[in-house]
């Protein structure tokens, strides 16, 4: 189901981006092919032999607003460099220049690495009047979505590879704990707490031990350790499931509790970011995570008792939906 949701979001974003980009092309937002009128002020004078010269680019706010059909008013002057190449003269704005839209977008699209807007100088007059021609800009949002998709795909691969070592470590420790009987000892210790929440799970089933380890890791802010324990707990609960494509009530309860777990110790990431200042949030973390856990348990229990959801329970009794089973007997 999540795959369909993600696919729908991606398709929707692409359609939205395409509509927006087509609108930009129809409005000619970036004035592709039309040079921008500017005034160049060379403090050291014009030197035809110099390859680089400092220059101040002056923009008339009124003319700029009319040219780009925008309400944005640019600064009156921007620091830049006049560069002479075999192709001609070019203006390169300083990297720290606070450019108005749509010049900022043109810079980001045409020169994302150096983050400097660059334009070709056309018809430089003796009084400094000139025209600047920028590279054409099209399909900005489509390109941005494509770039973001590739970037996050790389991030996802890095996260997945990083979790391999964590999963291997804790699953190995878990196997040792199983062989040593520690998991079964945990089952006996936490049975009074977990049994009311997971009544369908047998008393000595190893799933209860995995759930206890998962909850303990979450409580102490060990998110990386909680992940393999949660996966193993789901695998153990699946052994009690009569189907492969529908979650049982214990699986739903585990997912709800794992998502909204109480955290007595703040997550490691927050500790790394905030240091000792995390003490200012400790009580807020306890209260919010405690309330979220309570709401998650109540919600899972409530929905599990609803008839529409009880019908989809793989482990429901065969006559659970019969009228006599749903109404009290005399």
Attribute tags:
disordered C terminus; 6-stranded antiparallel β-barrel; 2 domains; 330 residues; 53% helix; 12 helices; alpha+beta
What's a concise summary of this model?
The chain has 330 residues and is α+β, with helices and mostly antiparallel strands.
Number of domains: 2
The coarse overall form would be elongated
**Which sequence of strands runs across the widest sheet?**
1-2-3-4-5-6
Number of helices: 12
Unreliable runs: 324-330
Beta-strand share of residues: 5-15%
Percent range for helical residues?
40-55%
The number of E-state strands comes to 6
Radius of gyration: 32 Å
- Overall mean pLDDT: 82
Secondary-structure-derived class: alpha+beta
Gap between N and C termini: 43 Å
Main sheet properties: 6 strands, antiparallel, barrel
Order of helices and strands: HEEHEEHEEHHHHHHHHH
Explain this structure.
The protein has about 325 residues and is an alpha+beta fold. The chain folds into 2 domains: about 30-135, no CATH class; about 180-315, no CATH class. The protein is built from 12 helices and 6 strands. The protein has helices at about 1-25, 60-70, 105-110, 140-180, 180-195, 205-220, 225-240, 250-260, 270-275, 280-305, 305-310, 325; strands spanning about 35-40, 50-60, 75-85, 90-95, 120, 130-135. It has a 6-stranded antiparallel beta barrel. Strand 3 and strand 4 (about 90-95) form a beta hairpin. The two termini are about 45 Å apart. Residues about 325-330 have low confidence and may be disordered.
């Amino acid at each position: 189901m999540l795959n369909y949701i993600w696919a729908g979001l991606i398709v929707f974003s692409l359609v939205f981006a395409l509509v927006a980009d087509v609108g930009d092309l129809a409005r000619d937002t970036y004035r592709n092919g039309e040079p921008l009128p500017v005034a160049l002020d060379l403090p050291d004078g014009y030197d035809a032999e110099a390859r680089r010269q400092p220059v101040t680019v002056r923009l008339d706010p009124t003319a700029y607003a009319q040219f780009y059909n925008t309400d944005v008013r640019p600064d009156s002057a921007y620091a830049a460099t006049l560069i002479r190449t075999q192709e001609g003269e070019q203006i390169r704005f300083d990297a720290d220049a606070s450019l108005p839209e749509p010049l900022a977008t043109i810079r980001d699209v045409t020169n994302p690495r150096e983050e400097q807007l660059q334009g070709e100088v056309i018809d430089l007059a003796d009084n400094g009047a000139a025209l600047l021609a920028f590279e054409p800009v099209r399909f900005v949002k489509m390109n941005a979505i494509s770039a973001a998709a590739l970037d996050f795909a790389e991030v996802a691969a890095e996260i997945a590879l990083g979790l391999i070592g964590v999963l291997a470590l804790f699953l190995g420790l878990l196997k040792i704990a199983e062989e040593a009987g520690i998991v079964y000892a945990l089952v006996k210790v936490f049975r009074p707490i977990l049994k009311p929440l997971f009544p369908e799970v047998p008393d000595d089933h190893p799933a209860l031990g995995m759930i206890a380890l998962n909850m303990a890791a979450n409580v102490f802010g060990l998110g990386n350790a909680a992940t393999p324990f949660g996966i193993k707990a789901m695998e153990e609960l699946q052994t009690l499931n009569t189907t492969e494509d529908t979650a049982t009530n214990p699986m739903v309860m585990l997912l709800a509790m794992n998502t909204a777990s109480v955290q007595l110790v703040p997550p490691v990431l927050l500790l790394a970011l905030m240091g000792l200042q995390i003490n200012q949030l400790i009580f807020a973390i306890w209260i919010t995570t405690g309330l979220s856990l309570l709401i998650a348990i109540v919600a899972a229990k409530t929905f599990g008792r609803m008839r529409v959801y009880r019908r989809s329970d793989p482990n429901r009794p065969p006559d659970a939906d019969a009228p006599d089973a749903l109404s009290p007997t005399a």
